[in-house]
Amino acid sequence: MDTSIITKEWLENVFQTTSENKQLLDSIQIDQLLDSIQNHHTDYLENQTIQSITDTIFNIIRGYPRLSLETQKKYCFQLQGYRFVRCIYELHPGKLVKVLPIQPNQKGISLKGIVMTIKFLDNGTHIVCMTPSKTFCQFKFDNYYTFQKLSSEEELLLTAFDLLQS
Question: How far apart are alpha carbons 42 and 153 in whole angstroms?
């Protein structure tokens, strides 16, 4: 795996640099940030860290049959800042998703777009997305590994979890 993705040392360096920058700390509205984190349901992030999310993505990619090391690195790089969505309740409308087909004979990672709605149909759960070209597409949740973009609040929360564990 490409170690330039995110490392514990890099996060600690960023945290140390920002914590020493008094001017930056003064400009951050800590109370507003904490309120915004508390107002969102983040139970899907419990017991997660940036490293555990990265490891999960790496294990999915590594388990994908017949991928070269270079392609594995490329896929991991494309999924920086994303989290694997295990269950449908972890999928949030209004956020960007990328998917990787579970069947390896299909195309690689693709950007589906912003989640608009979730449909529960007779043949399974379908996700409707608006693509970057402002068209709509739909995919069956059970046929794809789904990865959703982390918000800045989620990344901050995960960074805090990382630092608490170390």
Answer: 10
